Amino acid sequence: MRRMTISALQQASSAACVLATRFAATQMTVRDALNSAMDEEMARDSKVFILGEEVAQYQGAYKVTRGLLEKYGQDRVVDTPITEHGFTGMAVGAAFNGLRPICEYMTFNFALQSIDHIVNSAAKTLYMSGGRINCPILFRGPNGASAGVAAQHTQCFGPWYASVPGLKVVAPYNSEDARGMIKAGIRDDNPVVMLEHELLYGEEFPVSE
Hints:
Structural class: alpha/beta
Number of domains: 1
Strand order of the largest sheet: 3-2-4-5-7-6
Number of helices: 8
Radius of gyration: 18 Å
CATH topology: Rossmann fold
Order of helices and strands: HEHEHEHEHHEHEHEE
Distance between the termini: 36 Å
Number of strands: 8
Largest sheet: 6 strands, parallel
CATH architecture: 3-Layer(aba) Sandwich
């Protein structure tokens, strides 16, 4: 069997990128990709709701939830107090009772306040229950480096969460990734952590039909 050379692989990769761009329906920012995907999933399934700090009236710290309050109302787009431990516990409890919460953090640095719920409740319960209790929840928000917000707001938590049995961890780069991953995360019957890069929210990428 022949081995593909590095140059052949590079050519194949370039060709794939050209095809993806050629058949792209539109250019879309990562922010709008996330927003449109959540909108579609909330329309598809009435069990899906979003909660977090400033996700409703303010439309999200990075405007990812823009327009969802007006469309779905305050029962499904829920502003919470500034207590990550509290609203994460509410979200996990809702997931245990058959709903599909999207738990948004202003930044994943603040999710450290709620790590007990994420790890000891959401991630472990499927194993501890012998596969009988699912926790269909999506934890999402900005992660990693940003500009001018100091060390407390710029950590990358990918390796942390990836080391936890029971959690699926995804990190979208472009708009196509963002739409696909958030939809898959919402529909998953077990917990998913979606780490979004703050510096990419306003970047545009092609999105296929």
